[in-house]
Amino acid sequence: MKLVFIGGGNMAAAIIGGLRRGSGSADEIVVVDHDAARCALLARDYAVSAFASLGNAADGATIVVLAVKPGDVAAVCAMLRPVLGGALVVSIAAGIPSSAIANWCGTDAVVRSMPNTPALIGQGITGMFARAGVTPAQRTAAARTLQAIGDAVWLDDEAMLDAVTAISGSGPAYVFYFIEALQAAAQQMGMDPAQARHFTVQTFVGAAQLAAQSADDVALLRERVTSKGGTTAAALAQLQAQAVGPAIAAAAFAALERSREMARTYAG
């Protein structure tokens, strides 16, 4: 299978690295990125062929992954259109509707996806939507490619990718924001920066793993930590008084609306 990545940024590198660590060592992987230094780095680290211009790099491709900024997708598709052949187009560009990509590329064999940054350590989750022109074999190939960076979930309704963007695509930033705040509080309590980071980050890692491995609802897990009249109850009362829960929901809905706005813009 020949995979061609248009764009060699962090997410493309994460997918390539995951494929190389997994069963994709025999895949032919090609990267096209205008930055020659980036091309040299990817060629060295992942044993890929890397080029600073498209040329004939996409000839014979099984999958072409659009890994460029949203504003560059239309121009890239225009360059790809004459050379795609029967290749599947997989987009990881945020906010670009699959209909626009299909129109720009001249093919209905398009999968739109939304990964997130934990993909960089193989712990991502990706939402995927396939257009009607995607064959069962292409669906399998797309899923296998994106599973190289973590979990991958098919969605029947493309509109749900806006929710995926709001929850998991932008979600790591919400978590980092909370970590920053808790870490700052730890330092104010007297911990040195290294201790504050260690205790805060490990608490998030442990709690997330507990939630992932438990069959119980997270609300029940929270209740088990919260003794009546205890320290956790005092903390949670303050969070409720400050309406932190509704603020988190409002933030996610703001991201949802922005994703929808982007989709409307690119849909014309």
In short:
The chain has helices at residues 10-21, 36-46, 73-80, 98-105, 136-146, 160-169, 171-188, 193-213, 218-225, 231-241, 244-267; strands spanning 2-6, 28-32, 49-51, 63-66, 88-91, 110-114, 124-130, 150-154. It is α/β, with parallel strands linked by helices and 268 residues long.
Average per-residue pLDDT, rounded, comes to: 95
Instruction: Say which CATH homologous superfamily of the largest domain is assigned.
Output: NAD(P)-binding Rossmann-like Domain
How many helices? The count is 11
- Major beta-sheet overview: 8 strands, mixed
What is the general shape?
Answer: elongated
- The whole-angstrom Rg is 21 Å
CATH architectural designation of the largest domain: 3-Layer(aba) Sandwich
CATH topology of the largest domain: Rossmann fold
User: Based on DSSP secondary structure assignment, what is the total number of beta strands?
Assistant: 8
Q: Pick out the low-confidence regions.
A: none
Number of domains: 2
Structure explained in plain terms:
It is a single chain. The chain is of the alpha/beta class. The protein has two domains: 2-157, NAD(P)-binding Rossmann-like Domain (Rossmann fold); 171-262, ProC C-terminal domain-like (ProC C-terminal domain-like fold). The chain has helices at 10-21, 36-46, 73-80, 98-105, 136-146, 160-169, 171-188, 193-213, 218-225, 231-241, 244-267, and strands at 2-6, 28-32, 49-51, 63-66, 88-91, 110-114, 124-130, 150-154. The protein has an eight-stranded mixed β-sheet with strand order 3-2-1-4-5-6-7-8, sandwiched between helices. β1, α1 (10-21) and β2 (28-32) form a beta-alpha-beta unit. α6 crosses α11 (244-267) and α7 packs across α8. The chain is elongated, with a radius of gyration of 21 Å. It starts with a strand and ends with a helix. The mean pLDDT is 95.
